Amino acid sequence: MVIAVVSSKIYKLIISTGGIIDIGERKVVRASRDYGPGKPRFILNLPTTRNEIWIYLWENKIPVKVFIELPEDITKYERQERSARVGEEYLHGVEKSH
After folding, report:
1. 31-66 confidence digits (pLDDT tens)
2. How many domains does the chain contain in total?
3. What is this structure's pTM?
4. Is the residue at 47 inside a domain?
5. Has residue 96 been placed in a domain?
6. Quick one: which of 32, 53, 50 has its CA closest to 41?
7. Which of the listed residues 10, 19, 50, 92 has the most CB atoms within 10 Å of its CB?
């Protein structure tokens, strides 16, 4: 009976959002498992604060659509070579334990 009440609350929550759930700002993470040469996999981790929603969607096999909104200025996120980053940290007196 408790599961039915929780499911009912989650269903009402999902309907009240207009079917759109903002998961907040996330980073794309590369999966550690190798799926074959030249076939990397990437992951978006969902916030654990909404696990009840993710469980509901998973248990009920509800398909979702995922849209990704990029920041306006993506150039500030461009990857630097590791040696350049380490060199900058050294110049600015930042020491990090590795």
Report:
1. 887 777 778 888 899 999 888 889 989 998 999 999
2. 1
3. 0.58
4. yes
5. no
6. 32
7. 10
